[in-house]
Amino acid sequence: MPKFLRIGVHQSNVSGYTSKAWCVRRVGSAVFLKWGAVEVQGAGDGRRVYWTRLPQEKTVRCRTTQRAQDYAKAAIARRRNHRYEPLAGPIALRRRSAELSAELKQALATILIVDIVGSTAKAAKLGDARWTKVMGHYYAAVRKELKSTRGKEVVTTGDGVLATFKAPASGVRCATAIQKAVRTLGLDIRVGLHAGEYSVSGGEMVGLAFHIGTRVAAKARAGEVLVSSAVRDLMAQSEIRFRDHGMHQLKGVPARWRLYRLED
Question: How far is the C-alpha of 127 from the C-alpha of 186, rounded, in Å?
């Protein structure tokens, strides 16, 4: 069964990140698909990949063997075109402790989303080899700042990073530190922060707060750090200053939200 791992971080980099994997298998005139979130541990030949929860599965019945071959070939090509790398080893289902697989647990955090602006054009200009090196330095810089500000990486998405913080000030400090760190790489990033509740189920974080944070980041331009009113209100007594960025409709999110821009 051909397997593919989303390249959030190249395999030669530090382990312990989350990503997405696909499996494609053809049997006669049927194609079996399996996909879901995975956790990557180790690097190089010692790398291990685990499903973070039961993967989703789908069976496509193509009626003829030739149609199934064409479908599988196209499915594999799509994975390769969307920054997936072939994965030779197995994907195991990690057994989690009773505490992690227990009922939903509520938590409150400040959510940070970092995204590279114009990454596709930049990758095309640099070429695969140079872009891979740049991305390696990029993720190393982001992880260094997350560690120094006690942020927790949740997931990487191609050229983006989602992390959580216990305090909003820590998230803001991390955002500005990342901006400075990646300037030497010739990258333009945008950052969004939101504070809200999320749920933890089986070790996976879910909730509307993550979607809001992603939409806030999408409203930012290159070099900007935007925060939601929830973050700004929590930092009302802080020396960090924000400028009103107006009311915005966030795609897929109820009501309009007032956003604020971090002042330099």
Answer: 15
Secondary structure (3-state) at 41: strand
Residue whose entry in the numeric block shows the structure tokens 């935007």: 226
| Alpha helices in 4-127, H assignment, sequence order | 65-81, 119-126
Rama region for 126: left / alpha / beta (φ>0; ψ in -120 to 50; rest): alpha
* Highest mean predicted confidence (pLDDT) among 32-41, 42-51, 100-109: 32-41
Q: Torsions phi, psi of 158, nearest 5?
A: 75, -90
pTM, whole model, 2 decimals? 0.61
| Alpha-carbon gap, residue 177 to 145, rounded angstroms | 6
- Nearest-10 crossing angle of helices 119-126, 128-148: 130
The full set of domain ranges for the chain reads 3-93, 105-262
- Please check the confidence at residue 99 and state whether its pLDDT lies above 70: no
pLDDT at 9: 43
Please name which of 192, 194, 177, 181 lies closest in space to residue 234, comparing C-alpha atoms. Answer: 194
Q: What is the pairing mode between strands 105-116 and 30-41? A: unpaired
Per-residue pLDDT of 202-256, as tens digits, reads: 556 677 888 888 899 999 999 999 999 999 998 888 889 999 999 998 887 777 8
End-to-end CA distance of the chain: 51
Which CATH fold would you assign to the domain 105-262? Alpha-Beta Plaits (3.30.70)
3-class DSSP assignment, residue 60 = strand
